[in-house]
Amino acid sequence: MEGATIYILTFLAPLVIIYIVLVAWSRRRSDQRSLPGPSLVEGVKVFLKGSYTSKLHLYLPDLARRYGELVRVNVVLRDIVFVNDALVFRHLVRDKTFRELTNDRPSTFMRTFCFYNGQDMVLADLSQQQRQLRKIFHLLLKFYGEGIGKFEELMTRTLGELTRDLKNKEHSELSTSLKTYIRNIVGYLLTGGDTEIARTTLGKIDVFNDLVNNSLLFENESILQFFPFVRFVPGTRFKRMANALLAARDDLHETCFYAMKKTYAVGERRGIVDDMIAMQEEARGKGGEFELSDEMIKAVIQDIIVAAYLTTASTLSSLFLQIISKPEIQTKMYQEIHSVIGDGQPSFNHRQQMPYTEAVILETLRYSSIVSFLVPHLVREDIHYDDCVISKGTMLVMNGWYSHHRADKWGDPDVFRPERFLDSSGQLHDPDHPVRLNMIPFGSGYRSCPGETFAKSRAFLVVTTLLKNFEFLPPENGTVLPPSDPCLWPSTAVRCPDNYFAKVVLRDTN
Ligand code: HEM
């Protein structure tokens, strides 16, 4: 099989190279005032090196230093413009001159094959349908996030289970426990929580999510997008990946959508899936009203799983890894918890009084930059920026990793130092302080992350609840912590340290 693959690729290679040269040549002639960037050969070389190692974010800073805030890289069939500065990105996606033209998404393998041709929210172009889905999503998230009784009780119970589980262990595989906790919340948010359907769905979420996380890696996506045929080439990882992904998706919907729909009862609100089915039923037949199709509901379910689960779990896993490696930070957090919350139960209302804990969460988002390139945007029509043209069809990619690790903006970007977000009296800098404006972990504008508040408040609740009860120390069971430097973590679309154990010590106050 590998022989056949090599044969096909060898046969196709000359054709592809001729095609690349022709496309690049035609662009050079038609687009004289384009942004600065490397030559075609250098650009492709950087891209291939980054794709091969799956660490493209580590190869781009050099281009950023040489070419500035916007770097145009010509990669085969398309220009990619990497944006290296958070302020410039905000301007490009929010300013009214540009915002209707810079907020589409590129057509990707994932969107076409796995997300029903962009019937969702995350991967769809900016359109009436996308805006409508986003509005619905905001409403639902507000409803559940702010807590209806049943759901809030479920959340408290789930966090209680995690705490009890840790109490029974001297050593815990902490990262896995955190991941399971977030997975359960997302599953329950969708399907309720006390039913067989909900329980069966949880395992399927894991399978689907892991496959998406690998396939969505910018480098894998790009290969599949520029060379879609590789998905059909026998023996390649791309074919295996695509087949497994579609099978996992359909299996997920057997329970998460079809079983929910079959057992749906008017007036019952088991979770977000029921809410969407209810909206679908209500709008049916009433011409003119926005009607959710089955595919839209399934695609939004996938959105929620992909966007909410690994991002939040990885943020928590990264945060605990940092504070286990740096006990002085953990001690300061505990002191703040002790003085503000005391014997009480942590709640969202404590956030404003706990700037140090908030600063640790922000520093985790900066330092780990778990979604290096955010979610790519697409330019709908030519736009003129700074005397240059960014052509229609260009992929606009915010290089979040670089922006969060620029020495000229952060001074010591490779040091985990929450104090950078605090003023001299220990209060959190305002959101419009220059330090905060350099942060862009959740994107900006029309396509910014609608789950930002939900993610931050969940992280706050988990961190404060666990630190109030336990001290977390490096393991003494023969395992070691993974490196705390995110450059050394495995390459996945949402970057996360390897699983790790921690020694768990119950605090005296219990
Ligand atoms: C630490 C956790 C999270 C991080 C770092 C994160 C990051 C992001 C980023 C970078 C984007 C793309 C922004 C852009 O295109 O400019 C995004 C979009 C999105 N996120 Fe999040 N996210 C997190 C948690 C969540 C959660 C908890 C939810 C849902 C409950 C969620 C739902 C979404 C959705 C639906 C979109 C697509 C919005 C659109 O395209 O219009 N995210 N997120």
TrEMBL record:
GO molecular function: heme binding; iron ion binding; monooxygenase activity; oxidoreductase activity, acting on paired donors, with incorporation or reduction of molecular oxygen
Keyword Iron among UniProt keywords: yes
Keyword terms, alphabetized: Heme, Iron, Membrane, Metal-binding, Monooxygenase, Oxidoreductase, Transmembrane, Transmembrane helix
Residues reported in the UniProt entry to bind heme: 449
Residue ranges of the TM segments: 6-25, 304-324
Pfam families: p450
InterPro entries, per the entry: Cyt_P450, Cyt_P450_CS, Cyt_P450_E_grp-I, Cyt_P450_sf
Gene3D superfamilies attached to this UniProt entry: Cytochrome P450
Cofactor: heme
The family this protein is said to belong to: Belongs to the cytochrome P450 family.
Name of the molecule in the record: Cytochrome P450
Source taxonomy: Eukaryota, Metazoa, Spiralia, Lophotrochozoa, Mollusca
